Task: structure prediction
Amino acid sequence: MAKHPVKCTACGFDFSAEPSETTCVCPNCNSEISVVKAIKYYLSLNRIQTEQKKIAEGETYLQVERLLDEADFYVKNGEFEVALEKALEAESLSTTSSRLYMLKVVCKTKNFEDLNDVSHLEDFKKAIDNASFQEKEELKKTYAPYYRKRHLTSEEKSDYEMQEAQSIYARVEDNLKAEIPSHFKREKFIKTWLWLTIIFAVITVALIVVSIILDNPILSVVACVIFIAFIIFITTYSTNKLKIKVFNQGLDFFDAFESLNLEGKEKIKTLSSLEEFSVSALNGESPSRQESIFAKTLHYAYNGNSQSAIKVIENDERFIKTLSKYYE
Result:
């Protein structure tokens, strides 16, 4: 019969013993110990260590995912160097994450815009190696357009960028058109909402004054309830007012887009951000989220090597205010 690994119950030394034997002698401390107990002791500690390892790996996984989430955030804001630092920090903890290596690819290629980068090739290979079969197909689909662009001639790249810009422009136009009916309803309703807010404010103040004069606890409770309603109304009013303001800016910017004279990558980058804004508005995301995306759109246009774009933005006080709110 094959020997079984055991652990000495006296000194903790690992060795092997015959399971059929009743007792055995530890070669380290020469103690006579029970084979059954030594086997149980070994299995018990081994199980504990296995569980501890699983917990440690689980904690590492969560830490890696947290770092990659942070990297994603910086990628969305165009801060690729900071995002890459987060990805490298995650890589120091784990080298088996397909998501990690694809994030490195995104950072090194500036979100698939730098066609000359070759440092990402090894990372893409690692992303594929660590991906499941289904993930491999998705990664290849994501990378394919960039791969094709890397092998285009200068003339082909110019044609490709023009077609891509036209395609994005059409999508933005469709999204904005789809949101306009809701936008007009919101504009019409906001005036009514303002009057309701004022009325609730007046009633709240009046009830508080009367409840204090009459020392009436019931009126105090009613005043508190109406005050809560007032808070809800004024919050809703403020939210919708900001949505209207930001969407109007987006519409005006889109109407002026052709006069910006942006070209190539800068035009695509600005349009892509404008598309993100249009989707955000269409999905009813928070006005602060919509405003931050629109500010990013203005930032791309303003830094897009076009004097026309700079002039359009600087001549609109709203654009400058929104841009300076998020960018120095």
The mean pLDDT is 85. Strands lie at 4-7, 14-17, 23-25, 32-34. DSSP finds eleven helices and four strands in the chain. Residues 156-326 form one domain.
